[in-house]
């Protein structure tokens, strides 16, 4: 006999796990875009400072 | 003051540690679980949480580093997909060997010795190659990803592997052409070691892509990271099913590593690889020594050796990431001086 309760709880666990990994992916995407914007604005200036210009 | 249930000092510590790991990850395409998991274990987190959170962190960092390498044209998707296929089969085979050894009661000791020998062996080989000038001793420019690779820059072993023209032949970035079966063979072998040792495998795969298949270093790093997105994503999902992923650890680590990965990835187009290869080799040697010390501590029940092991790992990581940043700044200054009118 199929244990529907166990099956359902596994499904819920999978959704929770997927949401957790989704949260990590979302943070990675936000950080990529956010730090990308910071690099766009300040990157050249920082490189010039490091070059001693 | 608490953020995500952690004290401010812990959050700052995690962000700083993430920054350090991110630089290494962005530059070498490795170093995530190798550094984070032992650190979390020594900090007292349960093994499940240390491994699961380490994998989730590696997944997030590899996404960011892959996107950055993609922007610089340093990801070979065709090679990446083939490597994923071969590696997955290899991991399964490696896992079977571990289960067999476990049944014989030999798994722990054989895996530890193999790990130390392999990490130390690759570390010694890379250091030796860097010190003597190496195969392709003039070094491979990190910014050469768009160009066809110079025959002199291809390691001898890779030339041998490329000489087996068993169809179908696959054209890779950098003008390299390799038999599909050779790529799958290398991928299977690296996966086998990865599954056997229970590690992400960046420290095996990245040198394998360069030394065995012969793709330029920047593409080896970018493609390795692309593969880690999938292995890290799947691994962290499986651990998350058992409650092994703690966002309070992953989120601050990722905040630091996202910045570090940008610095490390950007440094790949500035620093000459040969300048840094010796540090990479020394970091692997430091890692091998750290694992050996930890194992001795476990066998003889000396808890302090666990801390010595962590200090060795963190010390070598700090040394190498510092060397990457220092070499980048020096290269920028030299470039500026050589281009300025006399």
Automatic annotation (TrEMBL), chain A:
Keywords: Membrane, Transmembrane, Transmembrane helix. It holds the Pfam family DUF7512. The chain crosses the membrane at residues 17-35. This is Uncharacterized protein. It comes from Haloarcula vallismortis ATCC 29715.
TrEMBL record, chain B:
The chain crosses the membrane at residues 7-29, 49-67, 103-126, 178-197, 209-230, 236-255, 276-293, 299-326. It is a multi-pass membrane protein. It is found in: Cell membrane; Membrane. It comes from the Archaea. GO terms for cellular component: plasma membrane. Keywords: Cell membrane, Membrane, Transmembrane, Transmembrane helix. Belongs to the 4-toluene sulfonate uptake permease (TSUP) (TC 2.A.102) family. This is Probable membrane transporter protein.
């Amino acid at each position: 006999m199929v244990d529907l309760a166990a099956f359902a709880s596994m499904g819920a666990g999978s959704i929770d796990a997927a949401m957790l990994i989704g949260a990590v992916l979302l943070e990675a995407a936000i950080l990529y875009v956010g730090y990308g914007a910071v690099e766009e604005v300040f990157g050249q200036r920082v490189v010039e400072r490091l070059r001693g210009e | 003051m608490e953020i995500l249930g952690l004290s401010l000092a812990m959050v700052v510590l995690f962000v700083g540690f993430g920054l350090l790991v991110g630089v290494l990850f962005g530059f070498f395409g490795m170093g995530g679980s190798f550094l984070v998991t032992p650190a979390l274990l020594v900090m007292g987190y349960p093994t499940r949480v240390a491994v699961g959170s380490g994998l989730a962190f590696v997944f997030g960092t590899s996404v960011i580093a892959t996107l950055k390498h993609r922007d610089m044209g340093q990801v070979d998707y065709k090679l990446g997909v083939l490597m994923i296929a071969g590696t997955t089969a290899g991991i399964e085979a490696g896992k079977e060997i571990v289960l067999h050894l476990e049944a014989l009661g030999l798994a722990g000791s054989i895996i530890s010795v193999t790990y130390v020998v392999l990490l130390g062996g690759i570390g010694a080989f890379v250091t030796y190659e860097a010190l003597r000038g190496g195969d392709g001793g003039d070094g491979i420019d990190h910014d050469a990803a768009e160009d066809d690779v110079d025959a002199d820059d291809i390691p001898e072993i890779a030339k041998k592997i490329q000489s087996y023209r068993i169809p179908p032949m696959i054209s890779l970035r950098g003008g390299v052409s390799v038999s599909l079966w050779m790529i799958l063979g290398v991928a299977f072998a690296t996966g086998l070691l990865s599954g056997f040792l229970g590690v992400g495998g960046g420290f095996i795969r990245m040198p394998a892509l360069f030394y065995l298949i012969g793709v330029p270093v920047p593409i080896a790093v970018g493609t390795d990271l692309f593969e880690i997105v999938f292995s890290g994503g799947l691994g962290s999902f499986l651990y998350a099913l058992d409650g092994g992923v703690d966002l309070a650890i992953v989120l601050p680590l990722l905040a630091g590593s996202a910045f570090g990965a940008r610095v490390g990835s950007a440094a790949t187009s500035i620093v000459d690889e040969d300048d840094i290869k010796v540090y990479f080799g020394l970091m692997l040697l430091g890692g091998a020594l750290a694992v050996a010390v930890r194992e001795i501590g476990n066998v003889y029940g000396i808890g302090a050796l666990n801390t010595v092991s962590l200090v060795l790992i963190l010390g070598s990581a700090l040394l190498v990431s510092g060397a990457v940043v220092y070499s980048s700044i020096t290269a920028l200054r030299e470039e500026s001086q050589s281009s300025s009118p006399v």
